[in-house]
Amino acid sequence: MKNDNYYIQKILTDLRFIVNHMEGVSRQALEAEEVLLDSMLFRLIQIQETSKKLSDAYKMEHDEIPWTDISGLRNRIVHDYGNVDLGVVYATLTNDIPWLIEQFETE
Length: 107
What we know:
By secondary structure, the chain is mainly alpha-helical. Helices cover about 75% and strands about 0% of the residues.
């Protein structure tokens, strides 16, 4: 049976993928590289999809993680793709993702 630890490891895999592929990438480069941008957006979607599978108890114990924001970004990407604010996406990829890794690794 899959448990929270299983899903945390899947989330960490996606988070680390983002960090590894965003190293040294400017916002302009991200916008210009369609494949990279699509890949990063896909990973953000996957993180939210996997986080939905975490137990409510885990989420309540880790209320420092912005679960609602993660879900909201995923919904924006999926349902309003053409109007995604790339400034928000870039900030998420470069600032928030490394912080999220720390949160999940301290588990």
